[in-house]
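=== RUN LOG ===
request id: a7f3
mode: sequence -> structure
chains: 1
length: 178
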Amino acid sequence: MSAIEILRKYKKDVVRRWVEAVFATYPLETAGFLRTGSDPFTNPVAHMTREAANILYDAMIGEETEPEAVKAALDRFVRLRAVQKASAGQSMAVFYLMKPILKELALAEILEKGQLESFLEAGDRLDTLVLLAFDKFMDARDTIAESRVKEIRNQYAQLRKWAQKLENGVPADDSGRK
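=== RESULT ===
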């Protein structure tokens, strides 16, 4: 039995446990909601996390996956992490929660079958996914920062217009007072 066949066998358990580990990184009340909701409309974060976990697991173990599907899964997952208040390291560390789960569930059988090299290659693919995720995370954070700067500029422009009106003797409101 090859390493990929062994890892396929453990997919459901690894993905479930990894998703639980990701949910555990959220505050307690949020984690509880994420664990219980399965409707993609009422609980899109949980749905997207589970969906991304399945695609990323397949990519990590070396299954044939569409590069665009992997990129889309990473993008959705990472954008969600980027809007949270966690650091880049904390946000990306969730990917590495998969490694101890894999070791616990599959490593003994992989060693027994003499497939350690293939197992290590899966870990290398996970590292590559994390690097891609980090780039996407930084792009998302840049977009958020640009949006905040634009918002502040718009607020400043509005305040400046209001101040100029007051300075020129134009009423500040419709009450007719100066």
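=== NOTES ===
The helical segments are 3-9, 11-23, 28-36, 44-61, 67-82, 88-93, 98-112, 116-167.
The chain has one domain: 3-139.
=== END ===
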